[in-house]
Amino acid sequence: xxxxxxxxxxxxxxxxxxxxxxxxxxxxxxxxxxxxxxxxxxxxxxxxxxxxxxxxxxxxxxxxxxxxxxxxxxxxxxxxxxxxxxxxxxxxxxxxxxxxxxxxxxxxxxxxxxxxxxxxxxxxxxxxxxxxxxxxxxxxxxxxxxxxxxxxxxxxxxxxxxxxxxxxxxxxxxxxxxxxxxxxxxxxxxxxxxxxxxxxxxxxxxxxxxxxxxxxxxxxxxxxxxxxxxxx
Length: 232
Ligand code: C5P
Fold this sequence. Notes:
Helix content: 40-55%
Number of helices: 11
Distance between the termini: 16 Å
Number of strands: 8
Structural class: alpha/beta
CATH topology: TIM Barrel
Bound molecules: cytidine-5'-monophosphate
Strand content: 15-25%
Radius of gyration: 17 Å
Strand order of the largest sheet: 1-2-3-4-5-6-7-8
Shape: globular
CATH architecture: Alpha-Beta Barrel
Number of domains: 1
């Protein structure tokens, strides 16, 4: 899979999501389905979007004991999504179990990527709440290395971390990066943002873009602009 723009479909219902996706008659975007939509509509929404010809990143961030994650990943694998994810904090053993569960009988499987530290976690909360006293960027790179050593395909990270992740884990280790905004756009609640062109420059493999596309007056034009800037 090459570079691509993944559209975060952060809608609360199937109706809203399908209405939005039906705008795209030409090129069908790669779509991210998160917890809100999945918990509201269940696996059927995944099948429906897949049936319409979209590739899917199912962003459910699993984190549990290895056996539970393994069995849950086997269920997600049968949904035929393209990318799944989990929390690297669940340990290397959990990530290995997840890969086992995800791998189908014929040896194929969706890509599996890890969340390192959530961007909502900062140095202070990591120290005070999690009792982790190392610098946060060191923790992020350590978790990324754990993911690579467990056999995963990449990590979700800030575009600002993508270059270092590639240096640490190899250029073929995928970086999937949210926090993308157009140079002339509203940054909303994101704190550290980058344009699609800058994310391309820094080596992100996939950018995850929500509101700059979903809340645009012309979502199709915004999507095309994103693809143009990021893929060329
Ligand atoms: O609307 P916006 O472009 O900010 O959406 C970004 C998407 O990426 C949302 O679905 C958000 O939950 C997700 N995300 C993020 N930052 C992370 C991980 C995921 O913004 N660190």
